[in-house]
Structure formats: C-alpha cells, structure tokens
Amino acid sequence: MVTGEVASLNPFLIAQRQLDEAAGVLKLDRGLHELLRWPLREFHVRIPVRMDNGSVRVFEGFRVQYNNARGPCKGGIRFAADETVDTVRALAAWMTWKTAVVDLPLGGGKGGIVCNPKELSPGELERLSRGYIRALAPAIGADRDVPAPDVGTNPQIMAWMLDEYETIVGHAAPGVITGKPIPLGGSAGRTGATGLGVVIAIREALAALGMDPASTTASIQGFGNVAQYAAIHYREVLGGRVLAVSCWDHKDRRAYTYTKKGGIDPRFLQTITDTFGTVDRAKAEQAGYEALAGDAWLGLDVDVLIPAAMENVITADTVGRISGRVKILAEAANGPTTPEADQVLQKKGIYVIPDFLCNAGGVTVSYFEQVQNAYNFHWDVAEINRRLDEKMTKAFHAVHDAAKEHKVPNRVGAYLVAVERVAEAVKLRGWA
User: Where is this site: Important for catalysis (predicted)?
Assistant: First the structure.
C-alpha cells in the first residue's frame, strides 16, 4: 500500500483521485467508474542494447494503452531516468481525457523507457529506439496505438522508430508515429503546437477575466520545446512580457531561473539552448541575463504562471510561494499541481487552466498529422494553426462553461467534459 507523502505525489493515484471527483458529479455507474480508473492494457518490456564499448545493457520500457473506446490510443514516449510505470499510467489516463476534451476520435496511451538520454551516444539512442519498437511492434499501429515524442525524445528518434516499424511490417506506414520530421510525413506547425495551444488557452482565460494580454507578464518553468514556444507566442501573439524561464542545467546538475530587466527574449535564448532545454549560462550572463535560483520562477510578481516541465512542482509545500498578483496558472506540463495545492489555488481565486486542456495543442496537431498521412496530403502552417486555434478555443469554452454550470473548479469541469464523452463511447460499445 502506498501511504503518506509518497501517495500524495504518486501521479497515477492523483489521476485516479481527480477522476473520482468528476465521477461523483456525473453520478457514473459503479462498474463504468471502475473501468475508467484503470488502463485497459499495458506492456512491460526489457530492451537489450549493445553499447558503444561492446557491453550489453538492458533497459526497462513501458507502453500503457489506457482506453480506446473513442479511437486508437495516442500518446508520447518519454526517455527519463526517473520513469516509472505509475507515471506512464497517469500520463496515459491524462491523454485519454486530453483527446476527449478537444473532441478528437482517439483514445489515450503513453510510453516510456527508464534511461538518461543525455548520457547515451547517438548510436546508443538509435539502437534503444529501434529496440523499443521491435518489442512493441505487434501492439502499435495507425489503427491501434500511435506513439509520438515526449520528454527526452525528438523527431529524429521518431524517424528511427518509424523506420524500424516499416522494416518489420514491410511497407510504408507513416501514420504509426507522429511528431516525425517533415520529409518523413511530419506536419507543419507540430514543433510549436503545444506551446501555441497553451497561449491560445491563456488568451481565452484572459478574455474571460477581462484582462488585456499586452499588459500582462508571465513566468515559466522549463525551457524545452513546450516552454520555448509558449514564451515565443506569449510575447509575439499576445504582446505580453515573459519575465523569467527556469531550466535544469545538466552540466551543473542544478536548475537556474533566467531573468532580464524588461523581459526575456525567448528567440535569443533558443539560440543558446541545447536539445535538452539547457540554456548556456555563460552566454546568457554575457547577454545581460541574471541567473537566479532554479525555483525563483514560482514566486515572481507576475500575472500568469506557466509550469512547463514535470509533475508535482506545485505542492502543499510550494503553493504558498505564489505571488498574490498571479491570476492564471496555465498548466503546460502534465500533472504539475497536486490536489492539496489545488485547494489552495481555489482559495486564492487563481484561474487554473488544467493540464489536459492547456497542453492539448500537441496531440491536436498530431491528429492533424495522422489525417494528412492517411490522405497523403499536407496542409500549410497557416491552415494547421487556424484549425488548432479553432479546436483549442472550442475546448476551452466547453470546460469553462461546464465549470460554471456545475459550480466546480476548472479541473473538475475539464474532467466532466472529457469523462462524459469517453463514458458515452464505452456504454455504446457495451463495455459497461
């Protein structure tokens, strides 16, 4: 049994607890509720990899297919040293609700490998990526389960995985993987899609609160792909200022918050950031940036906080550091807020844009990529962004309206919209 502090931070127990609250409001049948609390199936694999020094190292991998009542499972693959099956289960659950809240004909899944990709050579990464697909090829496919990039993975890794799958099945199958390089069937606009979706959701929240976007400020945790494009679009689309970004420095093995008077320039910081989201501290300081403590981003006097890194960063212990000026918490990361911290945010009157709504831009454009692959056709970036804006805006207002109607927090409102849609599909199939 998981108890105490460990239980309070276990992402899958948090996901189940959030679902339970929505199930109570929806008065779900007991059997249906129990079905939705657990993955339909999951795979645990061991992947032997020949390392550059000639030795063989065995890696542990997971793929969780949470629910496919609305369509094929969909979800990224993480390469992370601290990956656990409970993290993957939680992420697969949130993917199920994410695809439903933006009304995509998809289910939810997630994958992961326990490894530190920063410590692996390109050759080792390729052999690991191909080994993962060899282990799971029978379980994935455009009509079964479609992986994509996530933390620690990228389009090149997706290219290796696609090639391995096509080698196994003996024919072209571009729809089996999304987040691919454009020459292999990737979609225009996919790289910045999650960050743009975050900013679209913030735009709608600011409008709901009667705030002028151009007069607002934000602070962001993380400077990986999602955070970079959230910062860029916050500045260039909304006209607001980003005062700080925080990122992990894998060389120093600590985090720093980078800030600059008048606001940061995210496009400049991109030029001095490596593929793992680490800003070159020396170059940043030469350009006039100040490197503060890694957790300084949380307590800055801003209007919008954007956690865009990992789970469990806003907890009962850290939520009290949030400035009284903050009006919006935009959860660009998955599971950044614990239920205990959620209660404090409600009392503070902070408008929370819940994770599986806020960061749904990535899976939305991944779905567009699947559609384009199926038709062997490509939309340009303007069309992709137009369709993304339409989907995100409609989803935002469905959640906002559900929360108001039921007089519940936005997170519960998002669950009400998503769970009701999945539950309807489950009942129509006769599963419960």
Answer: 150
